[in-house]
Amino acid sequence: MARQARLTVPGYAHHIIQRGNNRQAVVLDDEDRRRLLEGIQEHGAAAQVAVHAYVLMSNHLHLLVTPATAEGVPRMMQALGRSYVRQFNRRHERSGTLFEGRYRSTLIESERYLLACMAYIDLNPVRAGMVAGAADYPWSSYGHLVGLRVDPLISPHPLYWALGNTPFERERAYAQLVEAAQGSAVQAELAQGVHAGRALGDAAFIADLERRTKRRLQQARRGRPPRAAG
């Protein structure tokens, strides 16, 4: 049976994960990482996709984005796949595919999950045991969001701006949010959501998405329907 097309809705936040084929490495050195970030920035801008958070791991990457059009995310990811893989293969004298054929993506209810999703993404290296704290990893959005460096890739979401009236207030609030997020139940929800490719939000959010997209998004209950009484 053909897989259902990924859901992309303009103006909504999307959590994306793209893995290496057979979980192989998608970056081998810092030059690869710089080129991959440049590609995300270039193709995101061309496709009118704002990037709010990211992390580059050895064999996968996470993005939190908002597209301006329904074609924005697939257009960005397709162009990134073509250009980056061509560069990677040329640099490392290899051929063939690099990424899995399909990236995973899920819509999230911004008010409920967006800041938590940013924290989930920035905490990836910590969960993997690569670093002690998010600030120790240079290949994520965390450094920009807490004021350690300026990253031209990042377009802060309005909910990030609402964390404080000054840059210092926002940066301190976000650092505290990330610290508090470690091991939370919401982090587990976000992991399950993006791997299952299902929208995350309350009942009203899911119902509104179903009306907008004409697609069933609620998980059907397993087993036989209950018998009618009487």
Automatic annotation (TrEMBL):
Domain of life from the UniProt record: Bacteria
Transposase IS200-like domain sequence ranges: 9-124
InterPro entries, sorted: Transposase_17, Transposase_17_sf
Protein name per UniProt: Transposase
